[in-house]
């Protein structure tokens, strides 16, 4: 039986949920907003490139701050910088198209500051006995944010003139970010210990037989899919329907399914079932792309989205749990948690850049529905390789 979450873990979940709600309100529509301003797949790709690269660089640099000083300040600054990003988009308006890469970099810095601190605090407030439960709740709350926030945003955008709807939702996001910062002060101050090792990741990978030599490519395989799907799915829904309200409806339905799926799987999935569950999840999140080969329409995209929402928890919960179990497998590795979390992020970013490179090669030259579907399928099957690399960590609950 999974152990219950204490007050600090619950509060961390609330802060994460507020961060997710604010980003779901506006972040869902940022690629659409930029697309309407530029009409260019290439520009959206450059935005994502700036975001991914700066996000990891921020992880790496801020890792020292989180390791040696009060990590909660990094988390708060990340929320604050997210507000700055949406403020910049709000103030620039249609001129945002002239600052695509700087805006991506600003967004990446905000995400890096928040997630490097969040991931360390998450490790500290959970343990192997309640990590599945925390991940289930995190997925559930994230899905709940995705149910209502994008739908409300799409409704407002389509019913307000010109850019007024975008201005309103960006403003609402700023308010929610501010609430998240305030609530974060109820999280305990967590001062770092030890000295940050800048070369830690490389040193780990140089050791023969080190488990991270398999874990890192597994994480990268997850990142390949994320690098494209994080922005292309919503953009494809908008292009197929030509209305933000349909994108809001899509997010509402798929997030509702994900909420139910994360809730059930988060409660019922035991570690002894991780190997089979993760394989099923990896195969099915690829298989649900197949209807798009028939036709790219709102209905086939909805089938794909519902299928992904149903099966993604089977993949992502074991992946996340086992990574943090590996970090915490000994006192020595737990003391190096900040460096390991930076290494984990490096794996994700390497994967995202591989996926994004495929996007930047294909779509600027051929942006037909068929090309988009093949691209999605090409990156969508890569998590199966992630399961293959993860197999040693999924046996009998072991992490080595």
UniProtKB/TrEMBL annotation:
> Where along the sequence do coiled-coil regions lie?
none
Which UniProt keywords are present, listed alphabetically? Answer: Membrane, Transmembrane, Transmembrane helix
Q: Report the principal subcellular site.
A: membrane
Q: Which domain of life is it from?
A: Bacteria
InterPro entries membership: MFS, MFS_trans_sf, Sugar_transport-like
Q: Which residues cross the membrane?
A: 40-62, 74-93, 99-122, 134-156, 168-187, 223-241, 247-264, 276-294, 300-320, 341-365, 371-390
Which Pfam families does the entry link to? Answer: MFS_1 (PF07690)
Segment forming the signal sequence: none
The answer to keyword Metal-binding applying to this record is no
Q: Where in the cell is it found?
A: Cell membrane
User: Membrane topology type, per the record?
Assistant: Multi-pass membrane protein
Record-linked Gene3D superfamilies:
MFS general substrate transporter like domains
What's this protein's name?
YQGE family putative transporter
Organism of derivation = Paenibacillus harenae
């Amino acid at each position: 039986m999974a152990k219950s979450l204490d007050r600090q873990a619950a509060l961390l979940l609330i802060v994460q949920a507020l961060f997710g709600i604010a980003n779901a309100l506006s972040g869902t529509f940022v690629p659409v907003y930029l697309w309407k301003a530029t009409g260019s797949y290439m520009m959206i790709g450059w935005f994502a490139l700036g975001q991914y690269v700066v996000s990891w660089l921020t992880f790496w640099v801020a890792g020292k701050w989180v390791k040696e000083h009060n990590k909660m300040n990094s988390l708060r600054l990340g929320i604050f910088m997210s507000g700055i990003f949406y403020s910049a988009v709000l103030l620039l308006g249609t001129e945002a198209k002239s600052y695509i890469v700087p805006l991506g970099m600003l967004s990446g810095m905000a995400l890096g500051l928040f997630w490097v601190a969040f991931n360390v605090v998450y490790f500290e407030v959970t343990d192997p006995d309640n990590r599945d439960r925390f991940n289930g709740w995190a997925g559930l709350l994230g899905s709940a944010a995705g149910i209502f926030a994008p739908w409300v945003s799409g409704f407002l955008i389509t019913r307000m003139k010109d850019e007024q709807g975008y201005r309103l939702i960006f403003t609402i996001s700023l308010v929610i970010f501010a609430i998240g910062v305030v609530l974060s002060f109820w999280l305990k101050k967590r001062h770092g210990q030890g000295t940050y090792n800048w070369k830690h990741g490389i040193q780990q990978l140089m050791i023969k037989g080190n488990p991270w030599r398999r874990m890192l490519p597994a994480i990268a395989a997850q990142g390949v899919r994320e690098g494209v799907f994080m922005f292309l799915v919503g953009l494809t829904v908008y292009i197929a329907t030509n209305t933000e309200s349909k994108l809001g409806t899509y997010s509402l339905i798929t997030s509702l399914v994900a909420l139910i799926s994360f809730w059930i799987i988060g409660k019922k999935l035991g570690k002894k079932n991780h190997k089979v569950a993760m394989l099923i999840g990896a195969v099915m999140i690829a298989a649900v792309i197949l209807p798009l080969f028939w036709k790219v329409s709102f209905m086939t995209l909805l089938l794909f989205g519902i299928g992904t929402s149903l099966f993604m928890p089977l993949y992502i919960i074991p992946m996340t749990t086992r990574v943090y179990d590996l970090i915490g497998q000994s006192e020595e590795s737990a003391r190096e948690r900040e460096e390991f979390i930076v290494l984990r992020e490096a794996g994700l970013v390497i994967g995202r850049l591989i996926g994004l490179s495929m996007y930047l090669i294909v779509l600027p030259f051929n942006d037909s529905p068929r090309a988009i579907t093949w691209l999605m399928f090409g990156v969508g099957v890569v998590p199966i390789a992630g399961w293959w690399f993860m197999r040693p960590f999924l046996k009998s609950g072991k992490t080595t």
